[in-house]
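Please review this one:
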Amino acid sequence: MPSETRNIVFSQNELLEAIGRYVKHVRHPMPAGKITRCHIEPDGNVSVIVDHNADGSNHVVEFSHAMVAAALIRFCIEKSIPIPRKSEKTVHGEADGMALNFRIEPQP
């Protein structure tokens, strides 16, 4: 039986917003400053590195695949973007952002 896949692609700005909201919600410890940019690994690694610029210094904070997925799922919920509950969820880097992928298996 066929399965369904769906992708939601987020721009870098949306990804930054999602991570910013996520760290506030879960109270993830962060250096003082503002999130200014992110880097998605070109080798397919879905870790996101966020640079902070506080008082002229930069701090790099890495986010795991699971944290990025949680941030994007939370962003969808906050923005009323429908997401399937019963699906396998993964993330991967896109040319200019990040994609949240859903794989929905048919019910037997």
